[in-house]
Amino acid sequence: MEKNGHPATYEEVKKIHPLYFNIVKKRYWWFGISLLIIIPGIISLFMQGLNLGIDFKGGTMLELTFKQTVTQTVISDTMKSVGLEGSVQLSNENTSVLIRTEALEEGKRDELLTALQTKIGEYDKSTLKEDKVGPAMGQELTRNALWALVIAMALMICYITIRFQFVYAISGIIALLHDVLVVVGIFSIFQFVVDATFIAAVLTIFGYSINDTVIIFDRVRENEAKMRRTDSYEDMVDKSVWQTMRRSINTVTTVLITLFSVFILGGESTKIFSLAMLIGVFSGAYSSIFNASQILVEIKSRIKKPSKGAKAKHA
Amino acid sequence: MRRGNIIKLAMLVLLVAVAIALSIKPLVDPEKGIPLGLDLRGGVHLVLQAEPNVNGTPVTNDDIEKAKAIISKRVNEMGVSEPIVQADYDKKRIIIDLAGVSDPDKAVSILKTTAKLTFRDPQGNVVLQGDDLKDARASQNPAGEYAVDLTFTADGTKKFAELTTKFIGQIIGIYLDDQLLTAPRVNEPILVGNAEISGSYTTLDEAANDAVLIRSGSLPVSMTIAEKRQVGASLGVDSLNKSIQAGLYGLIFIFLFMLVFYRLPGVVADFSLLVYALIVLWVFWMFDVVLTLPGIAGFILSIGMAVDFNIIIYERVKEEIRAGKSLRAGVESGFSRAFITVIDAHVTTLIAGLTLFLFGSGSIQGFALTLMIGIVASLFTAITFTRLVLRLTVGISPKMNTAWYGVRRDV
Question: Using an 8 Å Cβ cutoff, are B301 and A259 in contact?
């Protein structure tokens, strides 16, 4: 004998979640918080821009580990002695050096390495890491990255429009742009290096943020179909957000667990990627819950008014 | 009914355990296992850009084709396992991947050198060229010097005989590109078509390098290095170990999380995660997907997203049960309804992955590929495996207290 209960009502949903508060009503608060986070980032972008790595600017990056400790001055001086300039970063208790300079021809590069070996000491050849990107290549990578971002965004708008409605697509994309601005803004403020893996992270955040938003939209779509004319659109959206709240939080948590693992335990080269992803996923979860559906409500409430008048006439 | 389900479940668990045990060795085998990328094994990735000729003629596809063949010959001489040489005819480039090469610096210098060998008379006119040679070998002559022994072709022998007869007693120059290798004085005419270049090599290795260059022929165009990525061997191994560690820890924490928050279905989810990981790794093996550092990151990330699928389904099932359905009905309808939600959500991540794959290069493509494989595999695992196990579990005790599933009936 099967009991046929009813799908939870708005009141029941509210009761299940002990920390309930009306998200949709307070939406201007959330918009405000978002602006608070984004605006410093935008200012920073205009003032200092991004710290572009060699993947985009072109250049040579050398990472060596010496058998003794070194100082930044010693390295810079050695570089000057062969006529080079560039940034020097120390790590591993001052034994590892990360040098960034203009793209070096093989001859110059060998000259630099020999100079370092003579002036400072032996370096471990088996842990040498080198990246060289010629300027033409750098421009190409930049172009490809920008195209990728534009096309991915366009495809997502199409997909959401097909599966839901255009209004949903716009709301989702605005939430997505919010996430991208947060990540780019933070990378600009702290001048973290932006390399090819950063673009990979941003595109993954694209996918992830929309993913998150779609889950909530799916519920809104389901509830919207069951709506009666007297029901408030706002309440329906609020209910949808809370119905999916547990799922939203839990999935963000699992993805964050994996990202933290990679960030803390993975090697140096995945640090930029996992950092960008961590910021993006946090932001993605926030924007899906607090922004996307609220933007939907805003847009719908503005276009609803004229049609409401038309309906009254026919009645 | 109950016993049947328990037996089926037990058999599944056993099957998976055996599969895991049997999989470890073949997958990690360095020769036939999942291929590792440069950043995990060490090696050199080189992109050579063909420069337009000095006299202004453009680089033709033929030139690139010839260059690729010559470079392949040089690469094969280096004794690198599984070298990859590719030509990009549109952009006039040659892409070379040498994994596990012991001396990357030497490899790079050999590959990018044009290697035009010229014999010049005392006035500096070019009399003989590299293609007049049949062979070049490194050797050690009776005087103990390291040298390169040259053997001329029939045509070359004639030309060389002429040269040495005409300029007997004078100095001729032998150049590699624009670098003078040796300038011997001609003591007597050499008619047998052999010559020895000696005097400038301090090690056999040096002589061997030039021999390789001469043997393989000179590149029809000069090349510059557009992109170079070099990773030391032990750095590669270090990165590999670190990322495996990250993956394992991530997996363990997710296991615990699912257990605490979803109880019995959480155990099912953890179980299917293992199957999921196994499937993905075998797909990598089957398609020879080269694993890179971003690729592993993508794999670890996809584990977090695979769990997502389970969470969506379980939350839905909980709702259905709370709405009054029985355990069994709740699971069934939860699955079907959640499926639509999941497809929509995962397609968007697939779009992102596909775009990355098409526009990215090298290791970024590796990341995109593992992400996409992961998403498809998680869909597959959820539809087949998770559903089966969940059904079996419910079938064991359909009247089990729903608290085991995380739903309190008294709400």
Answer: yes
d(CA A72, CA A90): 7
Render B280-342 in DSSP notation, one character per residue.
Answer: HHHHHHHTTPPB-HHHHHHHHHHHHHHHHHHHHHHHHHHHHHHTT--HHHHHHHHHHHHHHHH
Residue to test with chain B: of A204, A216, A282, most B Cβ within 10 A = A204
Q: Do B325 and A2 touch (CB under 8 A)?
A: yes
Q: Do A262 and B246 touch (CB under 8 A)?
A: yes
CB atoms within 10 A of CB B185: 10
Chain A residues closer than 8 Å to B107 by CB: none
Q: What residues of chain A, 193 to 212, have a C-beta less than 8 Å from chain B?
A: 196-197, 199-200, 203-204, 206-208, 210-212
Quick one: pLDDT at residue A184?
Answer: 93
B357 shares contact with chain A (CB less than 8 Å): no
Strands B93-99 and B84-88: antiparallel
A193-194 and A51-52: which strand pairing?
parallel
Give the pLDDT confidence of A153-204 residue by residue, as tens digits.
898 889 888 888 888 888 888 888 999 999 999 999 998 888 888 888 888 8
- Can you read off the two tokens belonging to residue A252? 């963000």
CB B343 within 8 A of CB A20: no
Q: Is the pLDDT of residue A309 over 50?
A: no
Shortest Cα–Cα distance, B237 to chain A (Å)? 10
Beta bridge pairs of residue B332: none
Burial class for A3, CB neighbours closer than 10 Å (0-12, 13-18, 19+):
exposed
- Whether the CB-CB separation of A266 and B243 falls below 8 Å is answered with yes
Mean pLDDT of B272-295: 87
- Nearest 5°: phi and psi at B114? -70, -40
Residue A303: other Cβ atoms inside 10 A: 10
The token duo for A161 is: 């429009």
pLDDT, tens digit (0-9, with 9 covering 90-100), for A19-37: 777 777 778 888 888 888 8
pTM: 0.80
Is A304 in contact with A224 (CB distance < 8 Å)? no
Concatenating the DSSP letter of every residue in A227-289 gives --TTS-HHHHHHHHHHHTHHHHHHHHHHHHHHHHHHHHHS-GGGHHHHHHHHHHHHHHHHHII
Which of B300, B361, B367 lies closest to A258 in CB terms?
Answer: B300
- Residue B78 CA to residue B75 CA, distance in Å, equals 5
CB distance B353 to B375 below 8 Å: yes
* Coil/strand/helix, residue A73: helix
Query: Is the distance from CB of A254 to CB of B257 less than 8 angstroms?
Result: yes
Q: Quote the DSSP letter at residue A83.
A: T
Q: Is the complex ipTM more than 0.85?
A: no
Phi, psi (deg, nearest 5) at residue A256: -65, -35
Which residue on chain A is closest to B315 by alpha carbon? Answer: A247
